[in-house]
Here is the input.
Amino acid sequence: MSSIKPIKKYPVPNVVYVDVDGTLLINNRVNHPLVAWVRDQHSEGKQIVVWSARGVGAAIMAVDVCGIRDIVSHTLSKPGYVVDDLGKRFTQYMEIIHVNEIDGRKNSIIHKRKIR
Here is the structure.
């Protein structure tokens, strides 16, 4: 049996989506290392979007609490449904990063891995 991986048709978009609860805010406290990392990503030319399963209001509140309104292009609710011709495979065009991989330092694991 072949283990050939499918070739990605498109590059990973230059957009970073950041979740609110348990990510940007942990126990209602600002995740400062993540905020620093997000600022680094923005300075490298990435568009920043903040979303929340609790809706757009929670995303806006988190952006204001974290003081990142100046770098966030969109605040929105996490989607309840995704309609895509790839189904669940649509994630092949993105890199999923766990919040624990980010510590805000330039030499952190995520910076060593270097997202595009």
